Here is the input.
Amino acid sequence: MSLRRFFLSGLLISSFAAQAQTAPAARPMSQRMTDAFISWHPDSIVIGNRKTARWDYEQGLMLKAMQRVWERTGDARYFTYIQKDLEQFVQPDGSIRTYKLEDYNLDNLTTGHALLLLSQMSVQNPEKYQKAAQLLRKQLDGQPRTEAGGFWHKKVYPNQMWLDGLYMAEPFYAEYSQVFQQPAGFDDVAKQFALIEKNLVDSKTGLLYHGYDESREQKWANKTTGQSPNFWDRGMGWYAMALVDVLDYFPKNHPQRAQLIKDVQRLAPVLAKYQDAKTGTWSLVVDQATRKGNYAEASGSSMFVYMLAKGVRMGYLDKKYSDVARKGYDGLLKEFVATENGALAFNGTVSVGGLGGNPYRDGSYEYYLTEPLRKNDLKGVGPFILASVEMEIAAESGLGKGKTVGIDTYFNHESRKSNITGQPEPFHYTWEDRMHSGFWLWGNQFRELGANTVSVPTAPTAASLKGVDVYIIVDPDTKKETASPNFVKPADVQALTAWVKAGGTLVLMANDTSNCEIPRFNTLAQAFGMKFRDVNVNMVKGSQFEQGKVELPAGNAVFKHARAAYIKELAPLEIKAPATALISQGGQIIMATAKVGKGTVFAVGDPWLYNEYNDGRKIPAVYENFSAGKDLATWLLQQSARK
Here is the structure.
């Protein structure tokens, strides 16, 4: 196949690889490739040779990749792109322009992730995104199924399950089931994977055939098994990504969660076996690397790297597979990433792969080789960005490995009516809350540093804090905020003092005096030489953000990268030994720390790292709250000395 190597440029690749190795200060590859994508599609995502944008799975793939980059950087440009793209399609009533439910095409569900993201955030009219997500979910109610209960890939492909469909539908289905609290959905998702494992896994190699026809009527279908003839890399890649992604949403106690993890563990050694020993990549037809015409393919290789790296990070796979992922990622950089005329490019993605249709695709080896390669094809770019994010996390996630960060939901336990389920839900400085009021993004920084995040819903005791390395108490409730507040009691002070002395790291975040139960909270702070004063500073009028600026001078012990933060209406501190001032401004102590026994205490008079001031969407970029949050998370995990 003469076209397959049009993308190779040895000199450029070597130059790029050398540059990547010698320029540690360069922006991470995930951001660089995402920025390149935006330069190709500045206004809308137009797929392939189309003239206009339409609702499409490649769109959904790219928006998911961009979401991960936004969550990792706090750069509002990425979120804004997601929102603007969806605005072109989602109408006020929740209908979706160019989407047709009656097509019953699983490909059309992938963009549902972006709808669920916006439906949970503080955006204008989140209800329309909820309704649009419900419309996609409604498709699954009528989606044709095989007799065994598997979704047809499309209405036009009767009785057929394809590997592709597992990525298109199941992570959205699982996330929707979590967000809308519909647990029966998880059973159905698990069934889809079980059917694939039963019908498409080859017993000899462990590889997965591209699809199967339950009726055995298709010309490409084996008359005994219904399976298609070959192992297509991107088909397997879609499936591999789907496996690790659905687990993000599956309840820990779901009876089929363990089986899904076993499926991940079954697939990983198969991928390692078929990885090219020299390049680290995988071939288009996975098991026939040396056959004439076969070639290293970019999208499937990126998907495998993503699955392996994420599988290790999440604890599903042995850490030995991080070496397989690293070798694969190095291969992606060397074989497919190039700079052309000063711009980043991603080469080597096969344009398409299918079964049946018109003209008819017979699933043969020769068929897969006839599909052309494309430069900057989104089916390769999206997985490459996702793989890059995972590899960037892997480089720093060792810090928090084995450590747990707990957020108090006992002293702070406000609730509200969910705008999605209509049921009461906790909010205000929780890990789960993605609205302005939550700590979702800060929690994600802890998780990407390798730590586990949990809620602590009971009073602090030796038992409730067992296994917790960092414990964060934020804005204890007043009677104005909660009908039955839990005030700090002497027993709480005694328990936390003992826990800190034994090596715990305690974070105390107050609030302005009108919104925080300061007097009793101070009985705890004073045990460590700190006291939140009954005054407010940094009072901000409207959008005069400069009134909330806090300088973070170079050389301080905590903030190694951020130089300025936005913290408004905060309670400053008084301190005495063992506490010491960390950040002071205008004669006021803004932040303080204390070493007590083997442990550490950090205090600040505001919960300044909640999403509203941490996601890049509201405050000017000069205020580096997102970067400061990562600095603080890093420092807190470094302090942990609990045994």
Notes: The first strand starts at residue 160 and ends at 162. Residues 1-24 have pLDDT under 50 and may be disordered.
